[in-house]
């Protein structure tokens, strides 16, 4: 993550530097992007760049975290649903918002393709808890195992969706497929 000095830069300068880095990482990948080219294209000095970040890996992690945060903001807050239909409507609406965001912001999409996204989001935790509250999840053999498997299903669906060409990606179909997989996983014995 950036060194504390980075936060003292004016917001516009921070955003411009991260946007330049995002464009390079999106185009060239984490390993292929050149820190020197990022620095040159951003118009800051090399010494300043190392004053703000420990290196290219640190810069990539910062840019990727920013893309993850923007995707999370696009999903919005989860609101408790009145019933199963309401839960799935909200799930699909969030999926469609995220799909539209990623179609409109290909650099963020490319960064998310390169990011493992290991930690469950607060959105997922609220979604899963709501599904359990509504009785949609059979907790056997173990609720935590079902939660972990549910997160893995959504991560796999996300990876699959991100690998699709933008022009062929259908967020409605992707959401329906993810719903079908989750419903199979959650089905009681």
Automatic annotation (TrEMBL):
The entry's keywords: DNA-binding
Keyword DNA-binding set for record: yes
Boundaries of every HTH tetR-type domain copy: 11-71
Domain of life of the organism encoding this protein: Bacteria
Family annotation (Pfam families): TetR_N (PF00440)
Classification via Gene3D superfamilies: Tetracycline Repressor, domain 2
Positions of transmembrane segments: none
Residue spans binding DNA: 34-53
DNA-binding keyword on record: yes
This protein's name: Helix-turn-helix domain-containing protein
């Amino acid at each position: 993550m950036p060194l504390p000095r980075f936060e003292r830069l004016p917001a516009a300068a921070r955003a411009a530097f991260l946007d330049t880095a995002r464009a390079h990482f999106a185009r060239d990948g984490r390993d292929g992007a050149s820190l020197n080219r990022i620095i040159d294209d951003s118009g800051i000095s090399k010494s300043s760049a190392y004053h703000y970040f420990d290196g290219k890996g640190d810069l990539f992690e910062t840019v990727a975290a920013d893309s993850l945060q923007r995707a999370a903001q696009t999903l919005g807050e989860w609101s408790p649903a009145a019933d199963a239909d309401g839960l799935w409507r909200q799930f699909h609406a969030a999926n469609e918002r995220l799909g539209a965001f990623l179609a409109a912001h290909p650099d963020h999409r490319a960064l998310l393709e390169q990011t493992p996204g290991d930690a469950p989001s607060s959105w997922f935790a609220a979604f899963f808890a709501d599904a359990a509250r509504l009785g949609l999840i059979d907790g056997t053999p173990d609720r935590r195992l079902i939660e972990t498997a549910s997160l893995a299903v959504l991560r796999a669906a996300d990876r699959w969706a991100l690998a699709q060409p933008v022009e062929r990606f259908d967020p409605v179909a992707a959401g329906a497929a993810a719903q079908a997989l989750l419903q199979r996983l959650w089905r009681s014995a």
